[in-house]
Design a protein that fits this description.
The complex is a heterodimer of chains A (183) and B (187). With 183 residues, chain A is mostly helical. Chain A is built from 7 helices and no strands. In chain A, helix 2 crosses helix 6, helix 3 (72-79) crosses helix 5 and helix 6 runs antiparallel to helix 7. The chains are: A mainly alpha (183), B mainly alpha (187).
Chain lengths: 183, 187
């Protein structure tokens, strides 16, 4: 991994033992295949700083419901080409996201804490095709991707928590068989 | 104002707000938009079972759990205070089709004939809820992300692997909705 050596563990997590060091290497190796955040902050914030992400999520949840993106029917309409709605939502989101990322890169915009914003190129592997197809099958069945699952539960369809637990189980099973699967 | 908020929001308003979540997360704390990773954090926190894939410091990713908690609360607030009294307007062709599967109420977000505890204990409900959830979790991690991480964040950053993943998501969805789901819904 090209960026392994650039990533610094925050001082507080380095205890000096070898196990911690090994752990961090595998950590970043697997993290790089993932969408999870690989930008490590050097700054230490109190835990309640995370409430800003809760606020962003809250807005997201409201939009999900108000634009009916979490609806099983809207997902069926999309995959049966009966409505433009979902294509419009995803298309607009991508265009707005693209312009935002372009502006952040062009003007080297920093975070509110003054840290540079970094982007990491993703590597192609077969998982994006095989896993993507599997994900698509599940998406059309449940009418939800991982974000909408949480919003569906919030709107009162508590049975969706079973779908969510099953998704956690799916993630776990992937982790268990990961080394044996083609990538 | 309330009346305005209670209407269904159009696709361009919703799409623009979802798109703005990308820079919001980046500027607030250098976080890349992605939701399915929280399923992995849940495994790492609760059932790591000595699996290498779950051996990492999940506490560093705790922001993602706050984020999804916000989504859940947002869903609750919108359904409680901003819901559209008229209900959903579904494409007539779909209304006709799902009637054939015994789904008659197309005005709520999810069909209660499928998304209920009673349905969970039928073969059809079990396959759709448990099976579907499993495929979502397994597939998202195998693909290295879901619609948010690949289709929105990845495409925003012009990543080719994300474009490949997004196309695969859509192909999988088309196969399920048009070829497989009619059989499952008839069970």
């Amino acid at each position: 991994m090209s960026f392994n050596n650039k990533v610094q563990q925050p001082p507080s997590t380095i205890t000096g033992s070898d196990t911690v060091k090994d752990f961090s290497v595998t950590d970043y190796e697997v993290r790089s295949l993932d969408t999870m955040c690989i930008n490590d902050t050097v700054l230490k914030h109190p835990w309640w700083y995370n409430f800003k992400y809760l606020a962003v999520g809250l807005v997201f949840g409201v939009v999900f419901v108000k634009a009916e993106v979490i609806s099983w029917f809207r997902i069926q309409e999309m995959f049966r080409l009966q409505s433009f709605h979902m294509y419009g939502v995803i298309g607009t989101a991508v265009v707005v996201g693209m312009i935002s990322v372009w502006l952040i890169k062009k003007f080297k915009i920093k975070t509110i804490h003054g840290e540079p914003i970094k982007f990491h190129p993703k590597k192609f592997n077969k998982g994006q095709i095989i896993g993507g197809l599997i994900f698509g099958l599940g998406w059309a069945m449940t009418g939800a991707c991982p974000g909408p699952l949480f919003a569906q539960i919030g709107t009162g369809f508590l049975v969706v928590s079973v779908v969510l637990l099953s998704a956690v189980a799916g993630t776990w099973v992937y982790g268990y068989f990961r080394e044996k699967l083609p990538h | 104002m309330l009346e305005f908020l209670q209407q269904p929001w159009s696709w361009y308003v919703a799409g623009a707000i979802i798109g703005l979540i990308v820079p919001a997360l980046l500027i607030l704390g250098n976080k890349h938009f992605g939701i399915s990773a929280n399923l992995r954090h849940a495994c790492a926190a609760c059932f790591p079972a000595n699996i290498k894939f779950f051996q990492y410091d999940w506490k560093k990713e705790v922001w993602n759990l706050f984020f999804v908690a916000g989504i859940l609360i947002g869903g609750f607030l919108a359904a409680q205070y901003l819901s559209n009294p008229a209900g959903l307007e579904v494409a007539p062709a779909l209304v006709e089709e799902v009637k054939g599967y015994g789904i008659n109420d197309t005005t709520s977000l999810l069909p209660s004939e499928l998304f209920s505890w009673e349905s969970l204990f039928t073969l059809r409900g079990f396959i759709m809820l448990i099976g579907g959830g499993f495929l979502v979790g397994f597939g998202a991690r195998y693909a290295g992300g879901c619609t948010s991480g690949h289709a929105i964040m990845g495409l925003s950053d012009l990543q080719v692997p994300s474009l490949i993943a997004t196309i695969s998501f859509m192909v999988g969805g088309f196969i399920m909705a048009n070829l497989l789901l009619p059989f499952i819904l008839n069970l």
